[in-house]
């Protein structure tokens, strides 16, 4: 039932040979290998252009009607979103600046900053290239100074930099007086040579060796930027950049934009939902004669997961499956990016587990009853005291022999980034005398976007890591150990175990 996915982002094994990607070819592995074998440390920069390189262009009108209740916000949102791709010509960029100066004049700066953050949460995050995220993490691991540069403004760029963990941002600065935008540009816009000059000044101020540094950019307007550093890489290049890359033997990468749903995606989503409900009902009915709740719950999980995966066309590949069965019971923690994660976990863990969910899910007419059947604990995340009290029975669940699945991030992430961990799962494991078993999920956020119910066909990879004994941890001082577990899971995303085993239910 599984098969290799076209374009999967598998990093090379340590010591793998390094090749140079030919112009026009996609070779993320060669790019990663070059970073890993290249110079290290903060004197080396990794400069990422914004539109077309880190964020794909997209058509925003579908979002704007939601802001109809706020006409002023709608006009501001149009000006912020319509330029995300980045201008391809000087005329296009001048039109953006004119629109911004006219629309933003007299607007409090905090209003634009807040709207930019809101738009990122609503839609822009879905258009970040996962490949760009991967390269940022590799440069970060190499100790490089990572820089995001754009001809746009910080109201559009800063939310992306924050999500990617990029500390340094260069962009066009708008003039502000007494906290209000004046409708003018402060200084020189970062367009074409202005962008390249800004990078040179940044490098000079920090003693960065641009000759050993990387630059990633896409358009002809960014050719001066690409020529700033000794390691230029053309990303999703336009024809003019393709010619330059061919002539100068630059590596070329093609990142895949996240496409909008198509008819087949909606049909698969319908099939997945039908498979979920049908599989769950069949599973319960198959064990109803036993009158044993746990057997019915386990049967429901197995059949619901299998039917959902078949209906959606999603395949699951698993590394480390042996860690799912022993030791049990255990606290399985996972990185949470998608509503589809629970289906993936049910496929991987099979039987003998329950979970923890926010209380709002309990009121869902479909999922609420199913989750109650499998003895999910519902917690109120807005009330920390009540949440801690609600977790107390989970310890008894573990002691009774049933494993527990928890997302220690507490919420779904916007990108593959694994966010800070809450301590609840680790306290539960310590009190119950159960191990922590990390489950790392890759690509689930591409199958089902964070704020979307549409399921896309594809492959989800899962790595189940060896159990972690927490019995000797100090419950009053476990921050360092918890961060080490988070780092372990993050590193697994960057150094995926090969080859993944085929799911036991696949055929």
> Count of helical segments?
17
Distance between the termini: 4 Å
How much strand? 15-25%
Main sheet attributes: strand count, strand direction, barrel closure: 8 strands, mixed
Strand tally, please? 16
Q: Cα-atom Rg, whole angstroms?
A: 25 Å
- Taking pLDDT < 50 over at least 5 consecutive residues as the criterion, the unreliable ranges are 1-26
Fraction of residues in H or I helices: 40-55%
Structural class: alpha/beta
Shape: elongated
Average residue-wise pLDDT: 86
Biggest β-sheet: strands ordered side by side in the sheet: 12-11-13-10-14-15-9-16
Give a description of the structure.
There is one protein chain. 41% of the residues lie in helices and 16% in strands. It has 17 helices and 16 strands. The protein has helices at residues 28-37, 71-81, 90-104, 109-122, 130-141, 154-164, 193-205, 223-226, 239-248, 263-287, 293-312, 341-349, 367-373, 384-399, 424-432, 444-447, 479-494, and strands at residues 45-49, 145-153, 168-172, 174-177, 180-185, 214-217, 231-235, 252-253, 314-319, 331-334, 353-358, 377-379, 403-406, 436-442, 458-464, 501-502. Helix 1 runs parallel beside helix 5 (130-141), helix 10 runs antiparallel to helix 11 (293-312) and helix 11 packs across helix 12 (341-349). The longest helix is centred in the middle third of the chain and has 25 residues, at 263-287. The protein is elongated, with a radius of gyration of 25 Å. Residues 1-26 have low confidence and may be disordered.
């Amino acid at each position: 039932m599984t098969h290799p996915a076209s374009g999967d982002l598998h990093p090379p094994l340590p010591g793998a040979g390094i090749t140079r990607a030919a112009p026009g070819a996609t070779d993320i592995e060669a790019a990663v290998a070059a970073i890993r074998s290249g110079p290290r440390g903060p004197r080396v920069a990794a400069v990422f252009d914004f539109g077309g390189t880190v964020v794909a262009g997209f058509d925003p009108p579908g979002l704007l009607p939601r802001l109809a209740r706020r006409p002023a916000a709608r006009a501001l949102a149009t000006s912020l979103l319509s330029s995300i791709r980045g201008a391809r010509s000087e005329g296009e960029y001048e039109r953006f600046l004119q629109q911004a100066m006219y629309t933003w004049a007299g607007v409090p700066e905090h209003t634009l900053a807040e709207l930019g953050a809101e738009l990122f949460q609503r839609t822009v995050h879905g258009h970040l290239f996962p490949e760009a995220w991967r390269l940022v993490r590799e440069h970060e691991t190499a100790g490089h100074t990572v820089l995001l540069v754009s001809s746009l403004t910080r109201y559009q760029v800063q939310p992306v930099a924050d999500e990617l963990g990029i500390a340094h941002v260069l962009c066009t600065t708008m003039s502000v007086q007494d906290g209000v935008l004046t409708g003018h540009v402060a200084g020189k816009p970062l367009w074409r040579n202005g962008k390249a000059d800004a990078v040179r000044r940044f490098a000079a101020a920090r003693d960065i060796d641009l000759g050993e540094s990387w630059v990633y950019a896409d358009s002809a307007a960014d050719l001066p930027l690409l020529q700033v550093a000794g390691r230029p890489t053309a990303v999703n290049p336009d024809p003019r950049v393709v010619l330059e890359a061919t002539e100068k033997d630059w590596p070329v990468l093609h990142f895949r934009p996240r496409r909008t749903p198509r008819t087949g995606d909606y049909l698969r989503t319908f099939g997945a939902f039908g498979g979920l409900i049908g599989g769950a009902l069949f599973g319960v009915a198959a064990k109803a004669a036993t009158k044993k709740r746990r057997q019915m719950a386990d049967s429901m999980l197995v059949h619901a997961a299998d039917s959902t995966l078949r209906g959606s066309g999603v395949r699951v590949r698993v590394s480390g499956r042996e860690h799912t069965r022993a030791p049990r019971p255990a606290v399985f923690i996972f990185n949470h990016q998608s509503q589809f994660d629970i289906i993936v976990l049910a496929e991987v863990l099979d039987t003998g587990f329950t979970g923890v969910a926010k209380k709002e899910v309990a009121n869902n007419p479909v999922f609420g009853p199913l989750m109650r059947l499998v003895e999910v604990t519902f917690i109120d995340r807005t009330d920390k005291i009540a949440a801690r009290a609600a977790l107390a029975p989970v310890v008894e669940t573990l002691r009774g022999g049933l494993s527990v699945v928890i997302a220690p991030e507490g919420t779904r992430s916007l990108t593959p980034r694994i966010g800070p961990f809450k301590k609840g799962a680790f306290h539960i494991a310590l009190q119950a005398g159960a191990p922590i078993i990390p489950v790392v999920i890759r690509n689930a956020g591409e199958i089902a976007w964070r704020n979307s119910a549409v399921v896309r066909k594809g492959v989800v990879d899962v790595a189940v890591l060896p159990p972690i004994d927490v019995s000797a941890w100090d419950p009053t001082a476990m921050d360092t150990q918890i961060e080490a577990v988070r780092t372990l899971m993050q590193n697994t995303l960057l150094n995926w175990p090969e080859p993944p085993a085929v799911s036991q239910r696949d055929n």
